[in-house]
Amino acid sequence: MGAVADSQHPWAFAFGILGNLISFMVYLAPVPTFYRIYRKRSTEGFQSVPYLVALFSATLWLYYAMLKQNAVLLITINTFGSVIETLYIAMYIVYATKASRKFTIKLLGFMNFGLFSLILVVLHYAFHSQYRAPVLGWINVAISVCVFAAPLSIVAQVIRTKSVEFMPFSLSFFLTLSAVMWFAYGLFLKDICIALPNVLGFVLGLLQMLLYAIYRNRKQVIVDPEKKLPASEHVKNIVILSTIATSEVHPVDAKPCDGNDVEDVDGKDENKDVDGDEHEKCVVVVVDVDASGELQLKSEEPCAV
User: Fold this and answer.
1) If you ran DSSP here, which 8-state letter would residue 274 be given?
2) Where do the structural domains in the chain lie, given as residue ranges?
3) Closest by alpha carbon to 60, among 2, 111, 5?
4) Interval 60-83: pLDDT, tens
5) CA 7 – CA 96 distance, rounded (Å)
């Protein structure tokens, strides 16, 4: 695959500049996420895998740009990407739980140091200089597919929790625009290794934005009363599962439905008959809050007391 100077392709140069600008925004999109991690001193439900894979990809593309001639625009963006992803990972390790920190460090050592060094050694000793860039280019295609596929774990979490809190819209939007710019850059440069993976990036970016539009106003609510209550009794607690790892329990002092059911300050029903043969029952009711604010019943299951 011949190396072509950016200056000989004005459109490639133009899309390369736009790709740099948008990719800067892509790399900076997680800043609010890591500010939140810093403020809360916790990584909450965020994962480190997308950042580790992004760092691995940036370093490989940086090496690929160095093997090509006059690929300055690839060097600038991937140098910045390598630096910013390293900072993200360092902050994640500082505030992660023990298990997440251990997993992140192991994956960092295996992929970003071990596998990267292995690729460099194999390219240097197994291939002549004229073949190194094409071979590394196809390796980068495979790695770039993994970079674009890494957010699929977040997509699965969005579908499971019906929450988009851990999938920022800004990141998905700029990833899609970035894929378009770098596809055009590779197309005008006649470099299929640059153009090909960005087709997948564009498709996955559209998928993430579609999920954001579907789930951005959805919340999952669980109503957990002390027992399976008839209409004349009240709900004691409402457990709202937030989109972060913890849940909040809100006590509700509901008014009695009629004059005969009166609950005293100790939370006991004055008219409730005490019978040793009767046991309290519990039910978990799962409902959704739609856009109008109304509760929609999804399921009702018994739970252990």
Assistant:
1) P
2) 10-214
3) 111
4) 999 999 998 778 899 999 999 999
5) 45
